[in-house]
Amino acid sequence: MAATTPKFEQLGLIGCGLMGGSFALALKKAGLVKRVVGYSKSPSTTERARQMGVIDIEAPSALLAVSGADLVLVAVPVAATEATFKAIRHLLTKDTLVMDVGSTKREVIDAARRVLKDQVGVFVPAHPITGKELAGVDNADADLYHGRQVILTPIERTLTPQLEKATALWTALGCQVHNMAPEAHDAAYAAVSHLPHMIAFALMNAIVDQEHGKQFLALAGPGFRDFTRIAASDPSVWRDILVSNREELIAQSRQFQRALHAFESAISASNPDALEALIEKASKARSRWRMSAHKTQS
Fold this sequence. Notes:
By secondary structure, the protein is an alpha/beta fold. Helices cover 53% and strands 12% of the residues. The strands form 2 sheets. Strands 3-2-1-4-5-6 form a 6-stranded parallel β-sheet. Strands 7-8-9 form a 3-stranded mixed β-sheet, with helices on one face. It is elongated, with a radius of gyration of 21 Å. The two termini are 23 Å apart. The mean pLDDT is 95.
C-alpha cells in the first residue's frame, strides 16, 4: 500500500452524527482536509455541526454535500445507505474516494453494486471498531478513532488507488487497518458485537418486565453496569444493524443458546464439577483474549 498520507480538498459528509462528526473532527485535527461540507436528514443536526466546527458549510441535500468533494463519508444508518448512494451517485467521479462506517458490510456492498454500478470501484467499505453508547453530534470526538481497529472490506472491483488512499487515511488517524472479506467480517462481528448488544438489550427488557424489576435494578452494582453499558446504544442504529446481519446473528444466537443450556443443565442437575468446568473454560478464554488484545494495542 502507498505510504503517502493523502490530503483532501473537501470532505462531503453525509450524516453529521457521532461517527461522521468524529471523522470530520479527526481529519481537521490531523490537517488532512481543507473544507468539510455536511448534510444530515435533520437540519438542526447540520446546523449544530456547523456551530461546533464539525463542518464548515451546511448543504441542503446529500447531493450538494458531495459536489466538488474528493472524499465522501456515508455515516448514516445501514438501512439508509442505498438511498444515500442513489442521492449522490450523479456527482461521483473516478477520483472520488467514498467510504461508509457501517457495522455490517454485505448488505451495504450489495446496495453499492445495485446503485453505483460501474462506479462501485470508488467505494471502499469500512467499519471502524469504535463508538459510544451516546449518539449525536454533541458527542463527536476528534480522538474517537485513534488507536482503534478499522476493517476494510474491498471487493474485486474496488479500485487500487481508492483502497490505498483509504488505508493511508485511516492509518494517519492513528488506526490499525485490516482487510477482510465482507462475509468473514459479518460472521465475526455477529459473534463479538451484534450478539452481545442483542443480549444486553434482552437482559434489560427481561428485568424491567418483571414485577420487581425496578427494585432489582436499584441493587445492581459495577458488574451489571459494565455488562449492560451497550444496552443504552442508539435504537434506530442498532435496529438496522441487527436486521442487516440477521442470518449470521441468528446463527450466533443459537450457538449462545446452546452454551446457555449447558449452564442451565449443570445447575439444574446440581453438578458443581460440570459448572466449574464451564466457568473455567470461559474464564481462561477471556484471559487469553485480554492478553492478546493488549499485545495488539501496544
